[in-house]
């Protein structure tokens, strides 16, 4: 009878039982350590997951040191099982557990290099995708910046030990030196490649540069997927870009670097070596092309020409650049359509949106951010045309702080209703009334894939004695009637429930909910 139940119980229940057993096994470090060499390798993934979620750091180190597979991918191991809803997986990873994994890899490398284990199994530690870009960083999680610094220091440290072991002039004892030198001789392939995303600023650029310089010959080799740099000089940024692998880079994000158009023209030629570059983000770089000298006109043309050489580019972010009337010049040279375009606070003109609606990009756009641009007249009509062209592909639309009122939103509803794949709509900080929000809700109920709308505090929830806020910062600081706002939210939830669309989240919290990342599609 028990055998029958085992073979005929749902897979989710079987997985839950296995996971519960794994939790019991890893609960005692000493017992687990003794048992690991007898445990089948097929059970290592579930033991890893149980250890990570239970924060059993010593067990994690032992598991990693004995990992029986060539690849250890944290994201795959920690993601929720397709057949299991037994335990939710936190999006953010425990700092102590991530450190334990890194220590386990280092212990494993020292063990192999010392000749204790001649058969190397682990080749790749995949740490990409562990961190999100939310502004609210969990203090118990490891930030991308901290992960970058930790792995950079580990790479430099183990590289130095490698060099000392292979150097006959080292002060180590002769026996130990000869053993280590034998295992680290030229041509020796003892290494683990770490696939990771890098986030660097002025305080961490030195250690990252040192790590990248020794990475190709170090037992711990850093291989970057997405590269993000903030508050770096042109020289520092260029020095790091030159050290990155040409074939592994998927995204380059250079923000808050104050590079200006001349600085970007220095850097862009070096990006053409990244043959797999899909995403380029250049927000907050002090670019203003509204009134240019003859010399700067040539600089703008060069910038556009360099963009056109990025053959794999699918995502472009030029947020907070003053681009009035220049979109045709900037994007007209791209040979392949963009699928994600972020132009927040770019002072766009009607001619810019007219060009975009008629370009090869319009019908391919999956993500579009026009926040901070005044989409009222005279931009409203070209924006309507753009929405009409993008309706078949658009998944994510941000039009926050665009001065849209009920009448403007009403004019956009026919186009929005055609965006049948839309998943996210951001309309925060627009002067829309409760009635306008309800009309929007009724007209988007039929969108089958819609899951999140970030909506503004309705104008009728504000004190009549105060003017309408003119920016998002003053909007958040303004006084509103909390009781009215709660009542509006309850009414919206009731309408969703009546329409059986409780799968759609309506929220005024623009920071709490994770929005769509184009590269995660």
Automatic annotation (TrEMBL):
InterPro entries: Leu-rich_rpt (IPR001611), LRR_dom_sf (IPR032675), LRRC14/PRAME (IPR050694). One of its GO terms (cellular component) is cytoplasm. It is found in: Cytoplasm. Keywords: Cytoplasm, Leucine-rich repeat, Repeat, Signal. Its main location: cytoplasm. Residues 1-22 form the signal peptide. Pfam families: LRR_6. The keyword Oxidoreductase does not apply. Belongs to the PRAME family. LRRC14 subfamily. This is Leucine-rich repeat-containing protein 14. The lineage of its organism: Eukaryota, Metazoa, Chordata, Craniata, Vertebrata.
